[in-house]
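User: I would dearly like some help making sense of a protein record. I have put the entry right below:
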Amino acid sequence: MTRRVRRPRAAVPLLAVALGLALGLAGCGDDPEPGDRANAPSETTRTAGPGDDVDAGGPAALESRTVTTGLTSPWGLSATSEEAVLLSERDTGRILRLDPGSGEREELRTLPDVVPGGEAGLLGLALTPDESQLLAYYTVEESSRIVSMPWDGESLGEPEVLLEGIPGGAGYHQGGALVVGPDDLLYVGTGDNGVPESAQDRGSLSGKVLRLTLEGQPAPGNPFDDEVYSYGHRNVQGLAFDDEGRLWASEFGANAWDELNLIEAGANYGWPQVEGSGGGEGLTDPVIVWRTEDASPSGLAYWDGSLWMAALRGERLWEIPLAEGADLVEQPVGHLAGELGRLRSVLALPDALLLVTSNTDGRGEVRDGDDRALLLTR
């Protein structure tokens, strides 16, 4: 495999760093501060809120069963064809193998160069379609990288760098989502690393959705002839394809609005000019927005005709039924509101969802047994 290295960008002016810090702390799951970047939702964008929880009507409730407890800040999830789940722990750098049926788990590897802190650490995982390689996204000193590790169904080999130089020194807004699409290409969600203006800089890997080959090269046909697939993102922590091959992304807002976006090649999603929708010509509006206290979204999955979005500050699992025609989606419904605390990631299995909590991440109220993985069924 070819190792691709990005050259570090020039130092960011102190004013931009200060602005990024202020905006970063406002929208990372803590109480937001008033700001002037938030727009009212446009007529084409749905708004969801706590009144849409499942006990108020709509789709049937979920049944849950605890699979395992005692995890430390679980983050990335990837399913194997052998009905096992590979799981990353953000703050320990460990990759575990979990049996969703029995709850048995084993440590496969600890990545020694992971540098955790804040929102940084070992983040997303994705298996290649032939399951010969496990891909991982994690932060090192001052940057983030994507590596590939040989996987034989039992053990993980040594990591090899596919892409590095993703800005990562801020410790927050690291993105971290990985998903392999139906086109056998790797899609990556990155955050703005506390420098909002970088999301509009197509020469930076910050605040983007990237599209790569499985060897780490820019995918053929990318809109700007580099790694960038879409831009203007603040902090994409969830990516999922639906059964029509459309790519969806969950995105942290700052002061007011979190977003669900339908990702299109070359599209500009507006950050930092706009938070939420209504940004104007040349900008792509989100499909749905939530107040930050109702969402602060992380992981995203597609299962049973709906998108499922794990909410941290909102402490619920949002179900977003997909619709036919121009509407794209039906009104979202919240599940498990307040029952489990902060919810980090969700993974679609053939007959269930696997959900992990995030109460040991430094921002949650740790409950007995946290963090845990649960199996959800209808």
